[in-house]
Amino acid sequence: MTQPVLDVRDLRVVFDTDDGTVRAVDGLSFALGRGETLGIVGESGSGKSVTSLAVMGLIPRPAGRIASGSIHYGGEDLLAASPRRLREIRGRRIAMIFQDPMTALNPFLTVGEQLTEMTRLHLKHSARQARDHAVAMLEQVGIPGAGRRVDDYPHQFSGGMRQRVMIAMALSCDPEILIADEPTTALDVTIQAQILELLKQLRRDRGMSIILITHDLGVVANACQRVLVMYGGRIVEEAAAGALFEQPRHPYTEGLLRSIPRWDGHSTELLRAIEGQPPNMAHPPSGCAFHPRCPYQLPRCSSESPSLTPRDASGDGGSKACFVDLATIAAVAAPAASTAAGSAPH
Amino acid sequence: MVEVAGRAVGSKGEASVAGNTPITTSGRTAPLLSVRDLKVHFPGRGGWWTRRSVIRAVDGVSFDIRAGETLGLVGESGCGKSTTARAIVGLVRPTSGEVWLNGARIDGLSDAAMRPHRATVQMIFQDPFASLNPRLTVGATITEPMTILGLHSPKDRQFEALRLMRLVGLDPRFLNRYPHEFSGGQRQRVGIARALAVQPKLIVCDEPISALDVSIQAQVINLLMDLQQKLGLAYLFIAHDLAVVRHIARRVGVMYLGRIVEMADSSELFAHPRHPYSEALLSAAPLPDPARERVRQRIVLEGEVPSPDRVYAGCPFADRCRRVESDCRATPPRLEGGNHQVACFHADS
Ligand SMILES: Nc1ncnc2c1ncn2[C@@H]1O[C@H](COP(=O)(O)OP(=O)(O)O)[C@@H](O)[C@H]1O
Ligand SMILES: Nc1ncnc2c1ncn2[C@@H]1O[C@H](COP(=O)(O)OP(=O)(O)O)[C@@H](O)[C@H]1O
Ligand SMILES: [Mg+2]
Ligand SMILES: [Mg+2]
Questions:
Q1: Residue B12 pLDDT grade (very low, low, confident, very high; cuts 50, 70, 90)
Q2: Tell me, what CATH number does B289's domain have?
Q3: Which of A255, A285, A252 is nearest to A273 (CA)?
Q4: Sign of the torsion angle spanned by Cα atoms A194, A195, A200, A201
Q5: Are B240 and A219 an interchain contact pair (Cβ–Cβ within 8 Å)?
Q6: Rounded to whole angstroms, how far apart are CA atoms B254 and A91?
Q7: What average pLDDT does the segment A309-313 reach?
Q8: What is d(CA B67, CA B234) in angstroms, rounded to the nearest whole number?
Q9: Which residue has the higher pLDDT, B51 or B287?
Q10: A259:B267 CB<8 A
């Protein structure tokens, strides 16, 4: 990997809920390389959004709290930074695109007002400069008639266009790092393709570093160089995209890849579903969180939690958190497909 | 459970249940479902000083589904998939056109007249959270349609509910639990069991897996395909995930602005799309394969799907089409061809 721009070490985030303490992110470490697009995939509730909120300093209080860890940006630990310093960094150096644009856009302000607010604060633009810049940003994300539409309110835009407005906002101060949390999940594939193309262009032209959170393995294959797979608040596998898709080394990753059909007609008889249900993180399974659903589980999987180890002997091919060696098992019979849910309600 | 049908403009009165079935072109058995030139128009924006626009949600859709067969419908949001589905099951009144189910005409029927047909066609929805009554136990949810249609004795309904729960992979011990105690995938199973309660021949599935976690989607797809084999069910399967439709459907129709622009066998359509819109749609859909993704060429569609209240003299896709020629704007192309039908004057051959 290239020089890291962001280095997350042993991050733990907990939430106090009626159901008990939820360990939403449970000892997460990863680095984001300069000019890299890092994908984060995983079951819903596996801690993807909480990880990005932690980086942005936006964990909701008092329910949530960072229990331990560090997030280094440049020489500085963001978790130790003052609120003032965080405000300087947020939007200016590290920006975020949320899944639902309406959480990030103010319905009572025109998109121009919202875009100029950012650049006047961070880039000290004059009113004139800020407005020109806002129009240029809207043009860059492909909004037709940007000069006119800058005075429209968020609700006057369609879903796809609103998403672009939010992307324009995130990009308006030319951040070094962009965190995109399911940026295309609510969009149609043709719009998704346009937005993925835009992200690639930003990486290429400006060397932007991007964290792309998604549950769509096609999006990962299209846009990411490296991938983290999360399950139950932890990384279960991390590898270069090509290696991960060709040779998954964690049973959850393998299960995901086998459970999705392909529209190009590659092997589509019976999908091998992952049995059972995602874990309830207020009462996570003992040992490895995936063990109740794992076709390869060993006796120790229910009591011991595997830590991340190299995926292969050379040690530079990523890592996985699993006691089972899928490389040697691959030759043996694959687990049976199933349609049964079986397990109890949560 | 019966939803109030949205009033469509220009909706005609109740159609009588005619005795004759539509003529089939092939010599094969009559289809289970026939949809003929279906149109559903809604009143659009506009006030007393301007002419009210008309939203052509569905604008001339025709297809057949045979017993035991799956037809997939794909297309971007707003192209009229859900409205087509709702018109078929009688949740919205067609503006014109015909819907034939098992030889009986069912479009525009009143709730009472539609009731006997409810045993033939059922629907499952995208959101298993919203489509189940939170105050009914799983058992009551599944037996309710039997009660409405007067199927089985009250005691047998319980047995039937237990049998259906086993059939869809739910533990029968959960008979008296409430929907909120279940995960999304399990709730969708409850929805499927409920649809099966009246022993339908056709289930209209509107985005049945879109709200589910990726790891759960395959469970539900496998269940639907398994039930089809066991019970000989036919599905109208709507989804925006092309790969899922390719997997589950034998035939697939691609919709754009309320019309079917291409229809073919699933394997044929995905391997050789002929309509420029289908080509663009497929080229935009990523494959879970980094090596393929690196070399794939994309056909970039400019802009977004236009508003469905516009009236077109010619092909509605012409403005965004890379193969547009002058004849495209003069007359609308019709869906034509043998087994692989395309509505395009310049379709790829
Ligand atoms: N504000 C909150 N209060 C309580 N629990 C939360 C909150 N936000 C997230 N969680 C919990 O943290 C876990 C991780 O959530 P999240 O990061 O949103 O998952 P995802 O991977 O789907 O983005 C989940 O179990 C979720 O219920
Ligand atoms: N009850 C209604 N009143 C007015 N417009 C509607 C109504 N239902 C659907 N529409 C419009 O009809 C078009 C088709 O919608 P829909 O069938 O839901 O599309 P899809 O399911 O393909 O996303 C959209 O433009 C939608 O806004
Ligand atoms: Mg999330
Ligand atoms: Mg719909």
A1: very low
A2: 3.40.50.300
A3: A255
A4: positive
A5: no
A6: 41
A7: 89
A8: 5
A9: B287
A10: no
A273-282, B16-25, B76-85 — which is least confidently predicted? Answer: B16-25
Give, in order, the Cα–Cα distances in Å from A11 to each of A70, A91, A253, A309.
6, 22, 22, 18
At residue A43, the pLDDT reads: 87
Q: How far is CA A251 from CA A245, A262, B217, B287, B290, in A?
A: 12, 20, 17, 21, 20
Helical packing angle, A127-140 and A111-122, nearest 10°: 120
How many C-beta neighbours within 10 Å does residue A270 have?
16
> Does residue B87 lie within any of the structural domains?
yes
Whole-prediction pTM value?
0.90
A99-108, A294-303, A329-338: least confident range: A329-338
Domain contains B11: no
Dist. CA A253–CA A261, nearest whole Å: 15
Considering Cα of A139, then A144, then A147, then A150, what sign does the dihedral take?
Answer: negative
Asked if residue B94 lies in contact with residue B38, where contact means CB atoms within 8 angstroms, the answer is yes
Chain length of chain B: 349
User: Would you state the pLDDT for residue B53?
Assistant: 85
> To the nearest whole angstrom, how far is the Cα of A42 from the nearest Cα of chain B?
9
Q: Mean pLDDT over residues A225-248, rounded? A: 96
The helix/strand/coil state of B241 is: coil
In chain B, what residues touch A193 (CB-CB under 8 Å)? 283-284, 286, 298, 300
The residues with which A309 forms a beta bridge, in sequence order, are A320
Do residues B200 and B121 touch, judged by C-beta distance below 8 A? yes
Q: What is the distance between the alpha carbons of residues B345 and B342, in angstroms, rounded to a whole number? A: 9
- The 3-state DSSP composition of chain B as helix, strand, coil percent (nearest 5) reads 35, 20, 45
Mean pLDDT score of chain B: 89
* Residue B136 placed within a domain: no
Strand partners, B237: B72, B205
Q: How many domains does chain B have?
A: 1
Beta-strand relationship, A319-320 and A20-33: unpaired
> In this prediction, what percent of chain B has a pLDDT beyond 90?
74
Distance of alpha carbon B295 from alpha carbon B89, whole angstroms:
43
| Cα–Cα distance for residue pair B123/A121, rounded to 1 Å | 53
The token pair that represents A275 in the structure block: 């049995």
Which residue lies with its CA nearest to atom 25 of ligand 2? B78
A22-32: per-residue pLDDT in tens?
A: 999 999 999 99
CA A269 to chain centre: 31
Nearest-CA distance A194 → chain B (Å): 7
Q: What is the DSSP letter of B277?
A: H
Region of poorest pLDDT, from A63-77, A320-334, B125-139: A320-334
How many CB pairs below 8 A link A and B?
165
Mean local confidence (pLDDT), A41-61? 93
In a domain, B152, yes or no: no
Chain A residue numbers with beta carbons less than 8 Å from the beta carbon of B226 are 339
Query: Domain range holding B336?
Result: 17-120+200-342
* H or E segment to which residue B206 belongs: strand B202-206
Residue B12 makes CB contacts below 8 A (sequence gap 6+) with: B96, B108
